[in-house]
Amino acid sequence: MQKKVVILSGGMDSTTLLYDIVAEFGKQNVIALSFDYGQKHVHELSKADATCSKLGVENNIFDLAVLNQIAPSALTRKDWKVPEGHYADENMKQTVVPNRNMVLLSLAASFAMAVKADKLYYGAHAGDHDIYPDCRKEFVDAMKHAIKLADWNEVELLAPYWDIDKSGILKRGIKLGVDYSLTHTCYDPNPKGESCGRCGSCTERLEAFFVNSSTDPLSYYEVGN
């Protein structure tokens, strides 16, 4: 069987997706891929590594510091304050890293082609669409077509959670037995790696656990579990 490559940020969505793909194809056929692009929430990378160790999946973390230099965002610049509130709020657009997904998907596609994988997965979901233009179906479809044409070894780009929101993803993850203590969601963690509970990402995560009548295993320095 050809390899399946999963882009793994260390957050809820991509971690759930990794469990999903491992359940379908087996850990020996799955390779995870993570990127360090200077994000303030770099704690997510250690969580990604821990998840891969737990599942017995190969993980690769690549340095992409140049993205911080050319595409400024509140997620990467120390002098930019991470906005608080819900993703529906206008100020959350400050968390957009311009063209991030095209860059990450292009590099991930190169990796997938190099290891002769036939499928590349990423965790774009329904809750992303309003604020992140590079999570829209039009973008996914365009990248899917471009990646298929980019090499003689055809790689299929898949975003299986595109029409599911975070609550739906969590519901699926609970059934899969995902260890959400090994995930990181917060955009503004403290030096200990604890979540703030106030940024858009934390707000959406907490709402998902509430909707699913579940307890978030993470600790929050601003808001209690």
Short descriptors:
alpha/beta, 225 residues, Rossmann fold, globular, five-stranded parallel sheet
What does this structure look like?
The chain is α/β, with parallel strands linked by helices and 225 residues long. The protein has one domain (4-181): 3-Layer(aba) Sandwich (Rossmann fold), CATH 3.40.50. It has seven helices and five strands; from the N terminus they run E-H-E-H-E-H-H-E-H-E-H-H. The chain has helices at residues 12-25, 43-55, 66-70, 100-114, 137-149, 166-176, 200-211; strands at 4-7, 30-36, 58-63, 119-121, 156-158. It has a five-stranded parallel β-sheet, sandwiched between helices. The radius of gyration is 17 Å and the shape is globular. The protein starts with a strand and ends in a 14-residue tail after the last helix.
Task: Summarize it.
With 225 residues, the protein is α/β, with parallel strands linked by helices.
Give the topology.
Blueprint: E1 4-7, H1 12-25, E2 30-36, H2 43-55, E3 58-63, H3 66-70, H4 100-114, E4 119-121, H5 137-149, E5 156-158, H6 166-176, H7 200-211
Parallel strand pairs: 1-2, 1-4, 2-3, 4-5
Helix pairs in contact: 1-6, 6-7
Oligomeric organization of the protein chains: single chain
Report the biggest beta sheet as strand number plus sense, adding barrel if it closes: 5 strands, parallel
The total domain count is: 1
CA-to-CA gap between the ends? Answer: 42 Å
**What's the CATH H-level superfamily name?**
HUPs
Mean pLDDT: 84
Which class of secondary structure composition applies to the elements? alpha/beta
Shape: globular
Number of helical runs? 7
Which fold name fills CATH's third level, the topology? Answer: Rossmann fold
Q: State the low-pLDDT regions, or none.
A: none
The string of secondary-structure elements, in order, is: EHEHEHHEHEHH
Percentage of residues assigned to helices: 25-40%
Q: CATH top level?
A: Alpha Beta
Strands, count: 5
Write out the strand line-up for the largest beta sheet, numbering strands in chain order. 3-2-1-4-5
Strand content: 5-15%
The appropriate CATH architecture is 3-Layer(aba) Sandwich
Rg on CA atoms, Å:
17 Å
